[in-house]
Design goal:
By secondary structure, the protein is α/β, with parallel strands linked by helices. The protein has 11 helices and 14 strands. It has a 6-stranded mixed sheet with strand order 6-7-8-3-9-10, with helices on both faces.
Length: 305
């Protein structure tokens, strides 16, 4: 559904200067991909570049096999977008925004839009600037769902939303892809939500893609190990990303390749994506990006293929 090849974009006007470097990943049809990374890693910038809001310096973006720069109008018909900083006119109400922008989409359905607005509890007659952040996101989501989009691109869609609506949003995303014809790319910092919904993870760091893979494969590539400090120190250090001392011992994130060295004195746990991000961020290994790639790699495939 979405393929990004060697995308590069340099922002010389930012302080400090920022560059998206050789971004590559692909999202198959029928799946949800989480785009993650620490604040400032480039998630929102990448999304806006993919959508054509920023012009890339190099690379190619394909939607459903069609090249963005060749079939931009057709492609944008099939996109449902929810951005942290929305593209709608904040002085207008939800209803007026929809009446202006809806006709730009051939498959826009006013009844569907109004049904979702009502379901989400958004007043259609209040200016967007007067809505809470959560209700503005709800409005964008209602509009994205109203024109039969095939690829949904969400940038921090859960920002400002209560836990109950977040659960509903996860259910909406799962239902979107259930027929195998639609996909979701969602950038978020709420790891708990991704663990419940995402099939794939693309992990960014400093404008680069660190990992892009099946979420289960990523988690299976590493182990959280807990033991006394001296036992952690006995592990082959080439397999250790970072260790953290605690009250009841030391915990380390190690590559699955180190499993042969783990005897009964070590407690072993499967890491979450949040664990991986924490230990990666804390690590002082100068080669930590290469280390992560080496033990996980880039090989996103459709499950079952």
């Amino acid at each position: 559904m979405l393929r990004v090849e060697h995308l590069q974009k340099k922002f010389s006007f930012t302080v400090p200067r920022f560059t998206l470097k050789d971004i590559q990943f692909h999202l198959p049809k029928g799946y949800i991909m989480g785009l993650v990374g620490s604040n400032g890693c480039g998630k929102s910038t990448l999304i806006r570049t993919i959508l054509g809001l920023y012009q890339m310096d190099a690379g190619k973006v394909y939607f459903d096999g069609k090249k963005m720069e060749v079939a931009e109008e057709e492609i944008k018909e099939s996109l449902g977008v929810v951005l942290d900083q929305g593209l709608f006119e904040k002085r207008w109400s939800a209803k007026k925004n929809a009446s202006v922008y809806g006709p730009l989409f051939r498959k826009y359905n006013e009844e569907t839009f109004e049904r979702y607005l009502k379901e989400f509890g958004v007043n259609p007659d209040i200016a967007l600037k007067k809505l809470s952040k959560g209700n503005e996101i709800r409005f964008q989501l209602a509009f994205a769902l109203s024109h039969d989009a095939k690829l949904f691109v969400f940038d921090e869609p859960a920002a400002g939303l209560d836990k109950e609506f977040r659960k509903e949003l996860l259910e909406i995303m799962r239902n979107l892809v259930i027929d195998g014809k639609r996909s979701v790319l969602v950038a978020t910092h709420i790891m708990e939500d991704l663990e419940q919904s995402a099939d794939y993870i693309t992990y960014m760091d400093k404008g680069q893609v660190l990992l892009s893979d099946d979420i289960e494969h990523i988690k299976d590539s590493f182990i959280l190990v807990q033991a006394e400090e001296y036992k952690i120190n006995l592990l082959p250090q080439q397999y250790v990303l970072y260790r953290k001392k605690g009250t009841y011992g030391t915990t380390a994130l190690v590559a699955k390749d180190a499993e042969y060295a783990l005897d009964g004195a070590y407690q072993k746990h499967r890491p979450t994506i949040e664990d991986l991000m924490y230990y990666y961020t804390k690590s002082e290994r100068v080669d930590k990006m290469a280390w992560m790639r080496n033990y996980c790699g880039h090989h996103v495939q459709e499950r079952g293929v």
